[in-house]
Amino acid sequence: MLNPVRKHTREWTRFRKRSRLAAVLTACIGLMLVTVYAGLTNGAFDMTVKDVLGTLLRIHPKPDHDLVIFEFRLPRIGIAALVGMGLGIAGAVIQGITRNGLADPGILGINAGAGAAMVIFLFFYQGQIKGTGLAAIMAMPLFGLAGGLSAALLIYAFSWKNGRLEPQRQLLTGIAVASGMGAVSLFLTLKMNAKDFEMVAVWTSGSIYNANWNYIASIVPWLVLLIPLIVRKTYILDLFQLDEDSVRSVGVASEKEKAALLLASIGIVSACVSVSGGIGFIGLMAPHIAKRLVGGAHKRVVPVCGMIGALMVMVSDNIGRMLFAPAELPVGIVVAIIGVPYFIFLLYRNKMRG
């Protein structure tokens, strides 16, 4: 029987953790609402709050306001939130599986593999499909999944040594695979016709400027199916932070669970890449920020990663869209401007700890 003092201390600790999680999620939601407000009211066609509310609530709607909000800004905001959420959660899973704080879907080559597969798809069907057609958009995540899995298999094959994955070898292999896949994408892109070349060039830099409701329809099923699977297995991600023998000693089929979680994260990344191109560093930064805010337990880290990832992409897209108006800077470039210094900082910190 627990000592009453210890029992009270444990209950108080759990209450503090739940309160902290609730406070962080509430703050993220508040910041996202502010970002949505900025995204709806600002741009090449400025609108007032009254205009936005009148359009959303159908109070004296105007055709030009309907066009701007429902055809351009709302889909773009929705895609930014969904892509950021997916990449943030996938990053938490991949870092948990590999026990490598430098792991990220982009750095490990999964983004590049998914992107290369879709460039191949567009190359062989160039001129025969519309880039925004529903059939093409719904098919692209499947090609992305094949490319992401291929990249992951290559990384596993070259990173496996003495019966386990070596984090440093995995990181270097991922960078090499990403470079190789990027070279394939560039080679095929240069052989496309001018129209498809322009579309792919913008897309590979990480852009959601062409977002529409079909894109949302293509990504939502993947997130709805795979994120709950990850949430149910967050306790396994906590166990993976122990050594392999300890994980097996509690009855967990280590390799089977790793494969299931990795497959789920690759599916999410592939769906995100299919509608936004290669947006890197979200999966790297979001888990580190989440762990600083709510601790290391993945039950709390995963939802916070989703919120932080969504907020980062939404804010970055607003910056790229408004800061250089009327020109636009792709969201992937804005994220990279922030992410590259952060990655260097993490490398330096790991070196000092080593």
Model description:
The chain is globular. It has a two-stranded antiparallel ribbon. Helices cover 77% and strands 1% of the residues. It contains 14 helices and two strands. The model has no long low-confidence stretch (mean pLDDT 84). Helix 5 crosses helix 6 (167-190), helix 5 packs parallel to helix 8 (213-232) and helix 8 (213-232) packs antiparallel against helix 11 (254-276). The longest helix is centred in the first third of the chain and has 38 residues, at 4-41. With 354 residues, the chain is mainly α.
Short description:
The protein has 354 residues and is mainly alpha-helical.
State the separation between the terminal residues, measured CA to CA: 42 Å
Q: Count helical runs.
A: 14
Average pLDDT over all residues: 84
Overall 3D geometry?
A: globular
The strand count comes to 2
Strand order of the largest sheet: 1-2
Structural class: mainly alpha
Secondary-structure element order, as H and E? HHHHHEEHHHHHHHHH
Beta-strand content estimate: under 5%
**Helical proportion?**
over 70%
Poorly predicted spans: none
Q: What is the makeup of the main sheet? A: 2 strands, antiparallel
Gyration radius from CA atoms, angstroms: 21 Å
For this entry, give a set of tags.
354 residues, mainly alpha, 14 helices, two-stranded antiparallel sheet
